[in-house]
Design a protein that fits this description.
By secondary structure, the chain is mostly helical. The chain has two domains: about 40 residues, no CATH class; about 220 residues, Orthogonal Bundle (MetI-like fold), CATH 1.10.3720.10. It contains ten helices and no strands.
């Protein structure tokens, strides 16, 4: 009974939403076919097409694995640029008041600009191709990372800073042992948001900018070849990959880090 209870506790949160999605999907597919005569792919047809692709069936002159690896590589490159720039700028703006006064308003403005709005800028700077896609991803992920890092540093309880100074803590030790640990939960939240935003805008950019490979490129190409079942299969792949990186991996890392650093204490103040 205990094993059954554990299985029920772990499976219901997963199977419940999945079952609801499948039921809605089947309902939409049936309604579209009955009312409009549209051959709307249902979950079973999509699953069979996905198996074909996973077994090596070609998709726009490349395998599905080639498209997945191309998208993931662009994601990694753009996100790495965003992390490097966002964390450094956020730490600096959070620590130095004058820098904060000049940088914070700019970051707040950039946060309001949708990622795809940068497409004209990317095309003018880099033309059509890989570099433009990475630029759009990087600047989209950069803003939440920089803002969360900056706010995390500025929300550090001044009591910890005063106590460290009374103990004769130098600037480097202050940064490593007081400032960074206290700001880390906020930084990780920004990284997770930037990761998800970057993934979504990458796929949209692949559709618009044109890369020749990638999941976004494959979906938009499926429209021209009328291979909508493959497009649905790729949407499923996108959802799974995003879930693995953003929720299962990154959220778990964020929670473990917060527990390790804070030990149950609230590092921020009103």
């Amino acid at each position: 009974m205990r094993i059954f209870s554990k299985l029920k506790t772990s499976l219901v949160p997963v199977l419940g939403p999945l079952g609801l999605i499948l039921a809605i999907w089947y309902g939409v597919s049936f309604a579209a076919e009955m009312n409009k005569g549209i051959d709307f792919p249902d979950p079973l047809e999509t699953a069979n097409r996905l198996l074909e692709l996973l077994r090596g069936s070609s998709l726009h002159d490349a395998s599905i694995y080639r498209h997945i690896s191309a998208s993931l590589l662009r994601w990694f490159k753009g996100f790495a640029i965003a992390v490097g720039g966002g964390v450094l700028l956020g730490l600096g703006a959070g620590w130095w008041r004058l820098m904060y006064m000049n940088v914070a308003p700019l970051l707040r403005i950039l946060q309001l600009i949708p990622g795809l709005a940068w497409i004209p800028v990317a095309l003018l700077l880099y033309g059509i191709g890989e570099e433009a896609t990475i630029f759009i991803l990087a600047i989209t992920a950069f803003t939440p990372i920089a803002i969360s890092t900056m706010d995390g540093v500025r929300q550090v309880d001044t009591g910890y800073i005063r106590a460290a100074r009374m103990l004769g803590t130098g600037r480097r030790a202050m940064f490593m042992h007081v400032l960074l640990p206290a700001a880390l939960p906020s930084m990780l939240t920004g990284l997770r948001i930037g990761l998800g935003n970057g993934w979504r805008v990458l796929l949209a950019a692949e559709m618009v900018v044109g890369t020749g490979t990638g999941l976004g490129f494959s979906i938009i190409e499926a429209r021209w070849t009328l291979d909508y079942t493959a497009a649905f299969a790729l949407i499923g792949v996108i959802a799974v990959l995003g879930l693995v990186f953003e929720r299962i991996f990154f959220t778990s890392l964020e929670q473990r880090t917060i527990r390790a650093w804070s030990s149950g204490k609230d590092w921020t103040h009103d």
